[in-house]
Specification:
With about 400 residues, the chain is of the alpha+beta class. It has 8 helices and 15 strands. The structure holds zinc ion.
């Protein structure tokens, strides 16, 4: 699988110049394609476009592979337009020109020597040099991308990671309880982590409220009228934005989780199997329940994908009664306040009960048995809260191929 790492660039001016050149090539590609489509009603082939750009940009101080990379980038966009043509209401091919564009370096332009990543911009020109001390393999490709919020160019390094099974000598399992109030609550036999759902749920509420407003407005006007189209665009924008916000929470939470599993030598993750998570549900669904199911599906996909990349096994456990049963004596009753308290003397944070019981069911096979299977004192539950600007955990959990000091 591929993994992306982000490093700072010192030569900001050079990055800016390259980004401008890339923008010119991109714009030339767009304008040529549309001129030809308009005058001759044909789409220019990628091969012909590459030849044309070779001539057009022959004087540009840029690696020839980087120039072709821009053309390929455009044709990838165009291809997904052709794919979406029969699905969307009113698809438009990518027609916008760009003043600036990302810069792509293919393998032949990349050198890695003594902890320095050297990116060639063609013969006789200044290369881009990046300190990457702990990078221990040559990247597949590298991109210069502008980060709008910080207003700087950064280097996105894409490396290939082998899926390798880690052999832990112990057999430690971590259980995950998926829920609406907290997207994930985990338990590993000692510690319970509660991933706070406040931000996620407020993103979901906001999306649903705004979507309902737009849909009401749209129902009042004629389909495909100017106003209807405008509202439809706003709707699409809202959906995309919400999706990104939700995905960001899930990415950060799952990265944190995998990081925790590595640190605590967890070899199996078992997820409480809510009915329907493993079926694919489309994002267009209307009810809140369906959106939550969509969230669970994305969440479990991410866990599976990330766990697999570091050699952790993922399994599912049927989870009936796991939230109501006492983990110690097996009596069943619903908790009434923040703490789950049982006559047998067991008490714990109620939100963690589900995860504890999923682990019990998975490892012992039953909830009914009276057991003292919980060894020793439990550490009290630990809450994890989402912050949009916290450093992405990617580098933290994925030990390979970087060492510890990714920032070098
Ligand atoms: Zn009990």
């Amino acid at each position: 699988m591929n993994k992306t790492y982000i490093l700072p660039i010192e030569q900001q001016n050079l990055a800016h110049r390259l980004s401008r050149l890339s923008g010119r090539i991109y714009s030339k590609t767009v304008s040529t394609i549309f001129k030809l489509k308009k005058n001759k009603d044909m789409w220019l082939s990628k091969n012909d476009m590459e030849k044309l750009i070779k001539l057009y940009a022959s004087e540009f101080s840029m690696h020839s592979q980087s120039k072709q990379g821009v053309v390929q980038q455009y044709y990838t966009n165009l291809k997904s337009f052709f794919k979406s043509m029969d699905k969307a209401d009113n698809p438009k091919p990518p027609y916008r020109t760009r003043k600036f564009n990302k810069v792509i370096y293919k393998k032949s332009a990349i050198r890695l020597k003594n902890g320095i990543l050297k990116l060639s911009n063609g013969r006789g020109t200044t290369p881009l040099k990046i300190k990457a001390k702990s990078l221990n393999q040559k990247p597949k490709y590298v991109e210069i991308i502008y980060h709008h919020r910080e207003q700087v160019y950064k280097l996105h390094i894409v490396v290939k990671i082998e899926n390798k099974q880690i052999d832990y000598d112990n057999d430690k399992t971590l259980a995950i309880d998926l829920g609406q109030i907290h997207p994930m609550v985990t338990f590993d036999g000692k510690q319970s982590l509660i991933y706070n759902g406040g931000k996620l749920n407020s993103f979901i509420r906001f999306r649903n409220k705004e979507l309902a407003k737009l849909q009401t407005k749209m129902s009042r006007c004629k389909k495909y009228s100017n106003l209807w189209n405008k509202l439809n665009r706003a709707k699409k924008k809202l959906m995309l934005k919400s999706r990104n916000k939700i995905m960001d929470v899930l990415q950060k939470y799952t990265s944190h989780l995998i990081s925790y599993c590595i640190k605590n030598k967890v070899s199996t993750i078992v997820i409480g199997d809510i009915k329907g998570i493993r079926e694919n549900i489309s994002f267009g669904a209307k009810t809140n329940q369906k959106l939550h199911q969509w969230v669970y599906k994305r969440l479990t996909d991410m866990i599976e994908y990330k766990a697999k990349s570091v050699g952790i096994k993922v399994d599912y456990q049927e989870e009936s009664y796991t939230s109501q049963t006492c983990c110690q004596c097996g009596n069943r009753h619903k908790p009434t306040n923040r703490n789950y308290i049982c006559k047998c003397g067991f008490s714990f944070h109620r939100d963690s009960i589900g995860a504890i019981n999923i682990l019990k069911k998975y490892t012992i096979g039953t909830l009914e048995d009276k057991t003292d299977w919980l060894e020793g004192e439990l550490t009290s539950s630990y809450g994890i809260r989402y912050k949009s600007n916290s450093i992405s955990c990617q580098t933290e959990w994925n030990i390979r191929p970087f060492g510890r000091d990714i920032s070098a």
